[in-house]
Amino acid sequence: MSLTRLLRPPLLLASLCGLLGLGAPALASPAPASPPPGLPDAGRATAEPEAVAALRDIVARQKAALAEARTKQDASEAEDLRPRLQRVVDDYERLLTRHPRFAAGWAAYGLFLCDPVVEDHAAALPLLLRANRLDPDIPVVKNQIGVIMAEQGRVVDAFNYFLAAADLAPTEPLYHFQIGLLLAEGRDAFLKSRAWKRADLDKSMLEAFARAAALAPDRTDFAYRAAEAYYDLEEPRWEEAYRVWSALEERLTGRLETQTVRLHRARVLWKYGLAGDARDLLATVTAPELATQKARLVAEFDAEDEAERRASEARRATVSFPGPTPAPAPTPPVEPAGR
């Protein structure tokens, strides 16, 4: 089971920068409409000032090293940064040896190891779990634990962490999106657990995607996935899917974006049985960038047409009608007795 589509929060470091007053770092990956909520003020209030100051310094060095790493063109160039990144690791180790109950420190260390530049999830998970034990009210930590567990195939455990993150930060769209994506990608595992019925799973998936899209109206990727979710249902709801895609197209202004949505609308019309309307709409997709996708959809339509034609011919060939009932043979006359 592949769950690699699950999102890692692209602004994990920004959450820490917000906590420590450092300002947001420049990251290459796209950001959510709003950063995932940072570490709570309560955690800072109970930490020693020395620990908070030390963590601020570590995160500043971490921010600079990661930003430089993202400018490197190949692995050999990035290798030059290994000593700086190792010093960040060493600094975290020293900090947490002196302040073993500093939840923000464990969280920052674990999130650092989850950054794509470092990407050591096996080492990060126990650090994040420890941060969660020390302070169970850090949503970004719960979310990242969920991501790692999902990647390990522990989808039910991951779901519980995503749900907890969404409960702590109900207006953060990313956490709702994670829930929807996990329910869609890990459907078989949830059903196998027998704790879910398919109808309940489908309903929760749709609600999670819809909530994420509503909270982040500028995230077209969230809106796309919310519309695609109608395809994932046990019985796809083509009419509802068409309404959602149509509403999304009305919101978009870019030629490429609107015509991409039009491809989906054409496919939904086809599935709904409106083949002529589907082909007419598909003819309005003229963007050269979408030529491959359009050709693929035309081939899909043609293949389904051909399959239906052959099936129809096969049905006609197997229909047989009984011939006329033969007339009964004449009965010979019976001779009277005694002649």
Features:
single chain; 339 residues; mainly alpha; Serine Threonine Protein Phosphatase 5, Tetratricopeptide repeat; 17 helices; disordered N terminus
What would you say this structure looks like, in words?
The structure is a single chain. This protein has 339 residues and is mainly α. The chain folds into three domains: 7-130, no CATH class; 138-231, Serine Threonine Protein Phosphatase 5, Tetratricopeptide repeat (Alpha Horseshoe), CATH 1.25.40.10; 237-313, no CATH class. The protein is 66% helix and 0% strand. The protein has 17 helices and no strands. It has helices at residues 12-20, 41-46, 49-69, 75-79, 82-98, 103-114, 121-134, 139-151, 155-168, 173-185, 187-192, 198-215, 220-228, 238-251, 255-271, 275-282, 291-318.
- What share of residues is helical? 55-70%
- Kindly estimate the percentage of residues that lie in beta strands according to DSSP: under 5%
Helix/strand class: mainly alpha
End-to-end C-alpha gap: 95 Å
Radius of gyration: 30 Å
Low-confidence stretches: 1-5, 19-45
> In total, how many beta strands?
0
Overall mean pLDDT stands at 83
Q: Helix-strand pattern, N to C? A: HHHHHHHHHHHHHHHHH
Tally of contiguous helical segments: 17
Q: Please state the overall shape, judged from the principal axes of the Cα atoms.
A: elongated
Q: Main β-sheet: number of strands, strand sense, barrel status?
A: none
Number of domains: 3
